[in-house]
Design brief:
It contains 14 helices and 25 strands. It is an alpha/beta fold and about 500 residues long. The chain folds into 2 domains: about 290 residues, FAD/NAD(P)-binding domain (3-Layer(bba) Sandwich); about 150 residues, FAD/NAD(P)-binding domain, CATH 3.50.50.60. The chain is globular and about 70 Å long.
């Protein structure tokens, strides 16, 4: 059993983890760090998911890092090009040498007396442990389980003679040409899969319990490509990011303030794209308002084209049970299928699923408040990098990593060993951190921290506001406490 000490331990070598390492190298160049990655590759989500058509559902000018211009032709990029972008970032900045692959973090324990975290990992598929210690912990492992997705329990599954597949574990050698396929779900994964499968499958049916809002956009940003043609790459990238962030924020705010207007705009596009080829009110008219759940992006109207040419269709109904040749619906109809794909969502976990302890007491994340959407009250020297729900993940991830570096540098400059947010217990307001009505979010609300009534305990999902507060506001405020070794327990004893 080995022991390794670093100033900072980063958990996860995906989009967030590689970005965190870059910011740490740039802004805290004297700090040692390592990245602990449970799998054997860089890329996180973009290496794990290999289903047909896998792509971003945000534009790459905002999903890309703020320090590395996206130079791909497509703004809505294919999964493998995003993975290449992350790998290229790691290579260009000599980050790969600092990654420990096949190190799955199982436990993180904070000790106030020494102001250190002890991180326990298991190596590969074995139970062999390796221990790391650090002064600061950055959790960059996202918010869902990598080893399995969410699949509801369906009656009669064992009677089904075909193949049942979850997109998170797509078989590399699956031949679906000429097959009848039913995709259960109508989120981003389903709408990505269906046009791709429809190219060679006999027929693909999207089976949904209820409709989802869908917006079609070109996969290429012609304004961005024009700017890049005539301006330096960095300037063109910055201008495109400003444009796309502004449009996304405008769309989100308009959806919140004028939902009926946004509904009309989205319906008009559907009518233009689909005509009379499908019952739009039945299959594409949700009961909730836009952005109560994430808006699904369809590049180049590919889903609508597959429906219009008869290669794909939509069934809006509830599942009664699986039968030998497919799925029987509550209406009595049987959807015949050789393959059923359960695009039924993710299994969400907080802190990468690791058990976290502070001075021997286990941290129940659901009992804590989130500070600036990145730290838990009462948990010292630990940051969790979580992106936006209404915009590109990396916009918030970059800001969180930058802020973490400011926090570490402030501690060094003033001789502090410990920083810890402290929530005022007199403020009784509690709301879920994740403000979406999607099923996969609602199932996991108790696993995630709460938010309060106002900043810094409120998450506003507003990039412009966060940019100002996290990049320029002082790191020391009335809610963030700083200590030297020995002071924190002394204060606790005096308080008791």
């Amino acid at each position: 059993m080995a022991s390794n000490h670093y100033d900072v331990v980063i958990v996860g070598a995906g989009l967030s983890g590689i970005g965190a390492a870059y910011h740490l190298q740039q802004n805290c160049p004297g700090k040692t760090y390592t990245i602990l990655e449970g799998r054997d590759a860089i890329g996180g989500t973009w290496d794990l998911f290999r289903y047909p058509g896998i792509r971003s559902d945000s534009d790459m000018y905002t999903l890309g890092y703020n320090f590395k211009p996206w130079e791909g032709e497509k703004a809505i990029a294919d999964g493998h090009t995003i993975r290449d972008y992350i790998e290229e970032t790691a290579d260009e900045n000599a980050i790969k040498d600092n990654i420990r692959f096949k190190r799955m973090v199982r436990k993180a324990e904070w000790d106030t007396d020494s102001a250190t975290w002890t991180v326990t990992t298991t190596i590969g598929k074995s139970n062999r442990k390796e221990i790391f210690t650090c002064n600061f912990l950055m959790m960059c492992s996202g918010y869902y389980r990598y080893d399995k997705g969410y699949t509801p329990e369906f009656d009669g599954v064992d009677d089904f003679a075909g193949q049942l597949i979850h997109p998170q574990h797509w078989p590399e050698d699956l031949d679906y040409s000429g097959k009848k396929i039913v995709v259960i779900g109508s989120g981003a994964t389903a709408m990505t899969l269906i046009p791709s499968l429809a190219k060679t499958a006999d027929k693909v049916t999207m089976l949904q319990r209820s409709p989802t809002y869908v917006l079609s956009m070109p996969d290429k940003d012609h304004v961005a490509n024009l700017l890049r043609k005539y301006l330096p790459a960095g300037l063109a990238y910055t201008l495109t990011r400003i444009k796309n962030v502004s449009l996304a924020m405008f769309m989100y705010e308009l959806s919140r303030r004028r939902p009926e207007l946004v509904k009309k705009v989205l319906r008009a596009q559907l009518k233009q794209m689909l005509g009379n080829s499908i019952d739009i009110d039945k299959h594409f008219k949700p009961s909730y308002n836009p952005w109560d759940q994430r808006l699904c992006l369809v590049p180049n109207a590919d889903l609508f084209k597959a429906i219009k040419n008869g290669k794909a269709d939509v069934a809006t109904d509830h599942i009664d049970c699986f039968v030998e040749n497919g799925i029987k619906l509550k209406s009595g109809e049987v959807l015949e299928a050789d393959i059923v794909v359960t695009a039924t969502g993710l299994d969400l976990v907080a802190l990468g699923g690791a058990d976290v302890y502070v001075d021997g007491d286990k941290v129940n994340v659901g009992d804590h408040y989130s500070y600036k959407g990145m730290m838990l009250d009462g948990v010292p020297n630990a940051v969790s990098v979580i992106g936006y729900t209404n915009a590109s993940w990396t916009l918030k991830a970059d800001l969180t990593s930058e802020y973490t570096c400011r926090l570490i540098n402030h501690m060094d400059a003033h001789g502090y060993d410990i920083c810890m947010p402290n929530h005022d217990v007199r403020e009784p307001v509690t709301d879920p951190l994740l403000d979406l009505s999607s099923g996969y979010v609602q199932r996991a609300l108790d696993k995630f921290p709460k938010q309060g009534a106002k900043a810094p305990w409120r998450v506003y999902q507003n990039y412009a506001m966060d940019l100002i507060k996290m990049r320029f506001s002082p790191v020391k405020d009335e809610h963030m406490l700083f200590y030297r070794v020995g002071e924190l327990k002394s204060e606790a004893r005096l308080a008791s």
